[in-house]
Design goal:
Number of domains of chain B: 2
Number of helices of chain B: 16
Domain ABC transporter (chain A): 5-223
Shape of chain A: globular
Strand content of chain B: 15-25%
Strand content of chain A: 25-35%
Structural class of chain B: alpha+beta
CATH superfamily of chain A: P-loop containing nucleotide triphosphate hydrolases
Largest interface: A-B, 28 and 27 residues
Shape of chain B: elongated
Number of domains of chain A: 1
Helix content of chain A: 25-40%
Helix content of chain B: 40-55%
Order of helices and strands of chain B: HHEHEEHHEHEHEEHEHEHEHHHHHH
Largest sheet of chain A: 6 strands, mixed
Organism (chain A): Arenibacter echinorum
Pfam families (chain A): ABC_tran
Number of strands of chain A: 10
Distance between the termini of chain B: 31 Å
Number of strands of chain B: 10
Radius of gyration of chain A: 17 Å
Order of helices and strands of chain A: EEEHEEHEHHHEHEHEE
CATH class of chain A: Alpha Beta
Oligomer: heterodimer
Protein name (chain A): Lipoprotein-releasing system ATP-binding protein
CATH architecture of chain A: 3-Layer(aba) Sandwich
Keywords (chain A): ATP-binding, Lipoprotein, Nucleotide-binding, Translocase, Transport
Distance between the termini of chain A: 20 Å
Chain lengths: 224, 420
């Protein structure tokens, strides 16, 4: 079976304010095309784990594989490239660049990747916006649109480089039920139509129940 | 792999949306550089004017005959007293003439020398200016006026009449401005001068001479060499001073000492005559640079401050950029390019402001009796000050941008996103 993401014995300690063993021997994997969710109480280490998986946090022991390739120990500049190309990220708070237009926000990671011409990138970005039904907002300033729309723009941005996996840190945590439902159905559709792998940290039990697999965490361990 | 187009585009958007900070930071640089250019141009302009005030009136080499006692008194030649301890009381100067011995051959020799730009003879005579029953002591300098005008800037100091007027008149005199005022004389009037021996001559005032140095203007006047020779009753080879101007002022000292030995005359170079003067202008330059550097450093701190604030404001954006795959170096380049754009725009505007202010000062009337040739404040338009100004603008913005942008480079996106 092909794994898009795999971890072996990941341990992490917080040094401040006191030494604290936050992740204990985490080993698990996500299959290609799987829609998984991580649940757990506050402080169970689920977000910490997600940031390690996203390659942004490098301060841990153990091994992390992305597309069967060892990521652990790579240089920061290399990790940036991997993030850029392979990982799409959606945060709880939309986190768009407020001075740029919606279209520019979506295009930015692709411009950084620089594998396509500007015209192609723009075409792709419009395509993603259309898929999420927000193409009419393309030329608005990112600070001028509503919360639900911002989250959809953030999803479009996460998808622009056709990543191997989409990660979300409580992407619906800040949205009302209507918009949450909307975001969930977008994720579902991405999995079914595009075969995208997803890993979403959430508090929302209804959301988690409808995913393929729930990974429960407690006190830094994964419960089976 | 650095994608400059994306980086510059982000930098541009940041600068344009934060127009107020951008303008403030740029103006900081503009004022710093503008003030530097204005100050340095004005100060060095003044310095140069003051320098030339003295230097142009001093020949590169001045040859004359010093009245001094003999180095060896006659008794030293007496063999009988060879081993004795001789004491000579009240030594008098050696009996000699004031004129330079062989003055005209020396002059001819100098004029043929390739290093010499020109050499002019002078005859300095002590005279009295007669005004009714009042006698004013003073000098009358006999000169070859046209040659003098070519070699020195005496023309600038002739405030009424011209050098040509003096040359054309047999009994003409260029009267010192202070003397003219004292005796209430003007161009076209006559003045009587008396030699030390008591002979009185009437001279016609063809012009007024004002050097700007009151001590000179109150006693000194110029006349043709021949006129003064005639007044003194001396022959045409009677010359007391020879002023030499060289092509290269740096050869003055060496040449002065060789001339002195060769012709048995006293020859002093401009460097000896004005040693203390140079110290003064060095210190003035030092002050100019100290003030300028202070101004530029203050501008640098302004940029540092504003970039620092900008980076605090953009903390979330930085985290986002890093999360979506921009590296620390990319982020640093974004902020560095903002600093450099501010530095370049502010610096170029500063050069422009400095130039305009200099031009303004250059056109402000500045008339003083001491400086007859100066009508406006002096400004030194030296291209090097502009090159130094823009270089400093770029260097200081680079340094001021480096520290905050380096901080941005090291920001941990996880901490910002998780809000800890």
């Amino acid at each position: 079976m092909d794994f898009v993401l795999e971890t072996k014995n990941i341990n992490k300690y917080f040094e401040k304010p006191v030494k604290f063993h936050v992740l204990k021997d985490i080993s698990f994997s996500i299959k290609k095309g799987e829609f998984a969710s991580i649940m757990g109480k506050s402080g169970s280490g689920k977000s910490t784990l997600l940031y390690i998986l996203s390659t942004m946090d490098t301060d841990y022991t153990g091994e992390l594989f992305l597309n069967n390739e060892l990521i652990t120990g790579q240089k920061h500049s290399k990790l940036s490239q991997i993030r850029n190309k392979n990982i799409g990220f959606v945060f709880q708070f939309h986190y768009l660049l407020s001075e740029f237009s919606v279209l520019e926000n979506v295009m930015l990671p692709a411009k950084k990747l620089a594998e396509k011409s500007l015209a192609e990138i723009e075409h792709d970005a419009m395509e993603k916006l259309r898929m999420l039904d927000i193409e009419k907002l393309a030329h608005q300033r990112a600070s001028r649109i509503s919360g639900g729309e911002k989250q959809r723009v953030a999803i479009a941005r996460a998808l622009i480089n056709n990543p191997s996996i989409l990660m979300g840190d409580e992407p619906t945590g800040n949205l009302d039920s209507h918009n949450s439902e909307n975001v969930f159905s977008i994720f579902k559709r991405l999995k079914e139509e595009e075969g995208l792998s997803l890993l979403i940290v959430t508090h929302d039990e209804d959301f988690a129940k409808r995913t393929d697999r729930i990974i429960q965490m407690e006190d830094g361990r994964i419960l089976d | 792999m650095i994608n400059w187009r994306v980086i510059l585009n982000i930098a541009k958007t940041h600068l344009l949306t934060k127009m107020k900070s951008t303008v403030t930071a740029s103006l900081g640089v503009t004022f710093g550089i503008g003030a530097y250019i204005t100050l340095v141009s004005f100060m060095t302009g003044l310095n140069e004017m003051l320098d030339s005030l003295i230097l142009n009136q001093t020949p590169h080499i001045h040859i004359y005959n010093e009245i001094e006692p003999s180095e060896k008194q006659p008794i030293a030649l007496y063999q009988e007293f060879e081993d004795a301890f001789n004491v000579v009381n009240s030594i008098k100067p050696k009996q000699s003439q004031k004129k330079i011995h062989n003055g005209l051959p020396i002059l001819n020799y100098l004029k043929k020398d390739k290093k010499v730009y020109g050499a002019t003879p002078q005859l300095r005579a002590q005279i009295f200016y007669l005004s009714g029953s009042i006698e004013l002591g003073g000098n009358l300098v006999g000169v070859d006026i046209m040659e003098e005008a070519r070699l020195s800037n005496i023309d600038d100091y002739i405030v009424e009449g011209t050098a040509q007027d003096l040359k054309n008149s047999e009994n003409g005199i260029l009267l010192g401005a202070g003397l003219a005022k004292k005796m209430s004389l003007k161009e076209g009037d006559r003045v009587q001068v008396s030699t030390i021996k008591g002979d009185v001559f009437p001279l016609k005032i063809v012009g007024i001479y004002q050097s700007g140095i009151a001590d000179i203007d109150n006693i000194q006047s110029y006349a043709n060499l021949k006129t003064v020779q005639r007044i003194l009753g001396e022959a045409q080879n009677y010359v007391t001073d020879i002023n030499v101007k060289l092509y290269d002022i740096n050869e003055a000292t060496a040449m002065a000492s060789s001339l002195g030995k060769k012709f048995q005359v006293k020859a002093t170079s401009i460097n000896e005559a004005n040693a203390q003067f140079e110290t003064g202008s060095n210190i003035r330059n030092l002050i100019t640079y100290a003030v300028s550097i202070t101004l530029l450093i203050v501008a640098g701190f302004g940029i540092y401050n504003i970039l620092n604030m900008l980076i605090y404001e953009k903390m979330k954006d930085i985290a986002i950029l890093k999360a979506t795959g921009f590296s620390g170096t990319d982020v640093q380049l974004i902020f560095m390019s903002q600093a450099m754009i501010i530095g370049a725009v502010g610096g170029i505007l500063g050069l422009f402001v400095g130039f305009v202010l200099s031009k303004l000062i250059d056109n402000v009337a500045f008339e003083t009796e001491a400086l007859p040739t100066i009508t406006t404040y002096p400004i030194n338009y030296n291209i090097w000050y502009y090159i130094i100004g823009i270089s400093f603008a770029l260097i200081s913005t680079f340094v001021a941008g480096w520290l905050p942008s380096n901080k941005a480079k090291r920001i941990d996106p996880v901490r910002i996103i998780r809000g800890t």
